[in-house]
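Chain A, query sequence.
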Amino acid sequence: MASSPCGNGNFDSGLEIKTRSVEQTLIPLVSQITTLINHKDKPKKSERTLAAIHRVGQAVSVAVGRFVAVGEAIATENQELKDEMGQACFEARRAGDAIAQLTDVASALPSQADGRVTVFSDRTGMVKAARLLLSSVTKVLVLADRIVIKQIITSRNKVLVTLDHLERVSTFQEFVQIFSQFGNEMVEFAHLTGDRQNDLKDEKKKARMAAARAVLEKCTMMLLTASKTCLRHPDCESARINKDGVFHRMRCALEQVIDIVTEARSCGENQLLPASIYNGIKDFKSSVECLRENLYSSSPQSMGSQLEALVERTEDFTDSAYTSHEQRQAILSVCQLARQDTQQLMNAWIEAQSVHAKEATEDMEVAILKTCQSIGDLRREVHKVAVGRATDLLKVHGEQLPLRALKTAGAEGNLEAVAEYSRKLTEQKEQLVEIISAAQTLALHPSSKIAKENLEVFCEAWESQLCDMALLLREINDVFEGRRGDKRPYLSLPRPGKLSANLKTAKAVKLDAEEQTSMAKLGLELRLLSSDLDTEVEKWEAQEHDIVRQSQSLASMAYNMYLFTRGEGLLKTTLDLFHQAEVLSEEGLQLCSALRTFSTQLVDEEKSVVMTELEKLVALCQQLQMGAKTPVQGKTATFQKVDSSIQTTKGILAVVLYLLPFCNKLSKKYKSERSSLGSPQDWRERQDASTPVREEGALNSKNSNGFGLKSLEQHMAGLNLLESK
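Chain A, predicted structure.
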C-alpha cells in the first residue's frame, strides 16, 4: 500500500511508497529521467548523443501513453477512483508530452561557433516536467494499489459471512456444503494476502501478516474437527467452548490482516505498545550517545529519571520466582553500577554546561563510554534470564509429558486426571484452553472417534507452535550474540558443464501449496539441525580446519534446502533442490576424507568411534548422491524424491553433529598435550587407554514438529503491475 486512507489527493503531499511492486515499477522511469537530466550538464552534443537522447525522450512519452491508457481503464471500472485517477492520468500525459517536446531534435538549435547542436536550453522546464511525471505516475500506482486492498477486504468479508453461516449449522450435510464453500474462499484470501505479504517493504508488517496467516491456516483445520465434534455431541458444553474458541481466533486473525493492509491504526490514535526493557535500554543508550552531538537537547535530571524508570522495569526479572539467586544478584549489581556511571556522567555534563561548552568534554566522553558499557552489561544479564526462562519452558513442553498424559486421560474417560493435567498445562500457558476443552470432551465421550481426532489436531497444533518458538528463540539469540541468524548464500545452482548432465532432460517441478505444507515440518527440523551445526562449528578454535570449513558448507546448503520448503531462497524448483543435494553429498564425502585423515592420529578406541560414524556418513552421502542423480517422472515421484533428499540430508547433519564436538574435544586435548610435552610425538604413544562414552542423545534428531506454514504461490506484478491488475 502506497498511501494511507487518511491522506489527501494533492500531488505535492509526499507519497510514501510501501510496496515493492510500486517501487520496482518506478525504477526504470527514474533511470530514464535521470539520464535525460544528467545530459543537461553539457548542452552541446554530438549527433549520435543527440539521437540517443531523442530516443529516450520519445520512449518515455510512448511508455507514459500506454501507462495512462491502463490507468484510465481502471478508472472506468472503479467509479470511486474515477476523478482522482483521471486527474493523475491527465498530469502524467501532460508531463510525458513535455519531455517529448524538450527532447525533440527539431527543436534543437545549431551553435554558431562550431555547428554542433544545442539541446534542452530550458533546464528548469525539464526538471519540472520530470517531477510532475514521477508524482503523477506514483499517484496512479497508489490509486491502482487501492484496488488490491479492496479485493482483500472483499475477500475477507466473504469469508466472515460464510464463517457466520458455518458457526450456526445444525446438520452434517449442511456443514459439509458450507465448509466446502468456506475452503474455497479461504484459498482465495490466502493467495491475495500471501501476495500482499511478499509485496510489503516493512519487515515488521510482513512478520505480523505472516503470523496472522499462520493462525488462519492452523485454525482452519481445528475449526473442521471442532465443528464436527460439536455436531456429533450437541449437548456437550466443553465441545461448544472448544468450537467457540477457534471461531474467535479466526475472526481476530482476519481483523489483524485487514488492520495491516489498511493501516487502520495510522488513521486514528496510535496504539500504545507495551513498554519493554529492551526498548528502554535502547532509548537510554541513544540518549547518552546523543550528548556527543548536543549538550543542551535535554537535562541531566531527565536522564536520571529515564535510568530509574529503566531500573524499575528490571523488577520483572529480579522479583520473578523463576530467576535464580545468582542471576538476581547479577542484575542488581549491574543496575547499581549503571547508577554510579550515570551519576558521574551527569556531574560532568552539568560542569560542561556551566562553562558553556559547545561539545562533550573529555570527562564527559569517558563517562559516556562507561555508562554505555554498564547499560550493555545490563542488557546482557536480562537477556540471559529471558532466554534461560524461555528455554526451560520449551524443555518442559518439549518432553510432551503433560500433553501425552492429557491425551491418555481423555481417551480413558478419566475426568479427574484431565483436570489435574489441565491445571499443569494452564500454569504454563493460558492459551491452552482449547486443548483442555477438547480433552474434556473426549473424557466425556471416550469412544467418540471424532472427539479423539479433534484432540489430536489441537495437540499437533500446540506441538508445532513449540517447534516454531524454539526456532524463533534460537534466531533471537543468534542476533543477540552477533551471528544475526543469516546464512551465507551458497551459490551452487546448476552451471553449464558443472554437475548438471543429468538435469538437462529433466523437467522442473514446483510443489503446490499442499505439498509445500507437508514439507514445512521436515524443513524446520532441517533448519534446527543446521543451526545446531553452526553452533558446534563456532566452538572450534581452528576455524581454518578442513573439518570446520566443510561442516560450514554443509550447514549453509542445508539452510538453502530449508528455505526451499518455505518457498523462499535461491532454490526455486525441484531441479535446483536436487542439484543442491548432489553438491551437498560431494561436500559430505570431502568431509569424510578430512575426518579419515584426522582419525589416523587417534588411538584405537577413539579411532574406532570416529570410523564407525564415518561409515554411516559415507553411506548417507552416497545414498543422497545416487538419489539426486536418479531421474524420476511425474509429480508424485518428484515429491517423494524431494522428501527422500531432505530426510537423507537430515541424517547426514545428525551424524556430523555427533562427530564435530567429539573431534573438537580430541583436538583440544592433543593440542594441550603437545604443548605440555613440547614434542611432536605421535598421539598414540601418549594416549591413556580410555574408551569414550557416547553421550545419550548426541545424535540429536530434534524430535520436534514443524510449524505448518503453508508456502503459497509467491509472485509480484513487477513492471507490468497495472496490466496485471
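The first helix runs from residue 20 to 38. DSSP finds 24 helices and three strands in the chain.
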